[in-house]
Amino acid sequence: MVNKLSDQQKGSLLAFIAVMFITPDSLFIRLSNIDTWGLLFYRGVIPFVTVLVGLLIFYKANFFKLLFAMGYPGIVYVFTFSITNITFIISIQNTNVANTLIMIAMAPMLSAVLGALFLKENPSNKTWVAILITFIAVAYIFYDSIQLGNFFGDFFGFITAVGLAIGAVVVRYAKDRNLVPSAAIGKLFVAIFAVLFVENFELVGTDIYIVPLMCILCVAIPFVLVTIAPRFITAAEVNLFFLLETILGPIWVWLIIKEQPSLETIQGGIVIIVTIAIHSFLSLKKNTN
Question: Is the pLDDT at 232 greater than 60, yes or no?
């Protein structure tokens, strides 16, 4: 069944599933009581072990061949992946969820520009239109949220968006190689970096369940899918799906812990979701004709 799908359909499906797994991530972060560096450590080490075991089982002796075949793109991806994982947590713990995810929503625009500059992969007109509309929606939301004085958290949210954009372009550039091992190594780097600052590794209360569940469902599984998706569709198209998290993430947080997004966030989020839905429908329709 999967083999019958076009590259556009495969990439879109992978990106969509990945983002749907990611959407509760912000809620789990809010529900956890562990400190920032402790959280980063577990979000590094648990996905690293999970994915490493999966890769060893799937590729067996070919794993090391796969590892060394990544080359320079793999090294670059390790660093961009590590940085975005760190800056995301710092951002979301220093501003509200909506602000962080709004900043990350800039990734499609950034990846489209980088893709055009370095890959000579010019986005289609409909992709440019989708990027423009979503960027306007993000700017509309951000104009309201900047009044709250969350510059520190928002800044790291923007750095996360830049890292996501660079990472997606790197994967697209090296689409003939499997960079999932790079993502796993990136997670290991995150854990090692966090160890330098962790004061207490103990998981207490509900963290015993929340942290491992978050690390596997919202981190390990999605990052594998997101690393594979740009091999089939452009970096900009992959990052467009992350805009779903911009609205769904705050909704999860609002429903469970009543961290209510502003009216501007809701209005802009509706525009974003409708734009992504139309863009994806037109892309899939074009590739099935």
Answer: yes
